[in-house]
């Protein structure tokens, strides 16, 4: 039986990997982008933005809730809607920034390549 060895990695590395899983489909990226621009969206509004079926959109919303990026909210009309969990989004965003800005941890793509060599 395989044993998870997540304890071997930093918290920032684990959060960055989790965010990658959370946005692992273009539909989820579009949903997050839309929620960054609109504080609350209804399911119907999300359906209009994403060219996929209702059940598929529902699956993507469930995935975003699994990673705590999505909150149930209320539209000004009183109807149910979805909003971005900004605290959780910022937690991921800051972990990514810390993970990839550590001195010496990430090189430019061109570093170490010879002239004309493709990376």
Task: Summarize this structure as a short list of keywords or feature phrases.
8% strand, mainly alpha, Arc Repressor Mutant, subunit A, 5 helices, two-stranded antiparallel ribbon, elongated
Helical coverage, percent range: 40-55%
Percent of residues in beta strands = 5-15%
Structural class: mainly alpha
Number of helices: 5
**Overall 3D shape:** elongated
CATH-defined architecture? Orthogonal Bundle
Identify low-pLDDT runs. none
Largest sheet: 2 strands, antiparallel
Order of helices and strands: HHHHEEH
CATH top level class name: Mainly Alpha
Average predicted confidence as pLDDT? 85
Number of domains: 1
Main-sheet strand order equals 1-2
Number of strands: 2
Topology readout:
Elements: H1 11-22, H2 26-37, H3 43-49, H4 54-66, E1 70-74, E2 80-84, H5 86-100
Antiparallel strand pairs: 1-2
Would you kindly provide a written description of the structure presented here, covering whatever features stand out?
Helix content is 50%, strand content 8%. The protein contains 5 helices and 2 strands, in the order H-H-H-H-E-E-H. The protein has helices at 11-22, 26-37, 43-49, 54-66, 86-100; strands at 70-74, 80-84. It has a two-stranded antiparallel sheet with strand order 1-2. Helix 1 (11-22) crosses helix 5. The termini are far apart.
């Amino acid at each position: 039986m395989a044993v998870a060895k997540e304890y071997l990695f930093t918290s920032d590395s684990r959060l960055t990997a989790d965010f990658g899983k959370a946005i692992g489909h273009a539909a989820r990226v579009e949903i997050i982008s839309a929620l960054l621009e609109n504080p609350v969206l209804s399911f119907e509004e999300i359906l209009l933005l994403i060219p996929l079926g209702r059940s598929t959109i529902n699956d993507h919303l469930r995935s975003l809730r699994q990673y705590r990026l999505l909150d149930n909210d209320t539209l000004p009309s009183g109807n149910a809607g979805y909003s971005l969990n900004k605290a959780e989004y910022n937690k991921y965003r800051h972990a990514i920034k810390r993970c990839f800005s550590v001195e010496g941890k990430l090189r430019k793509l061109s570093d170490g390549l010879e002239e004309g060599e493709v990376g």
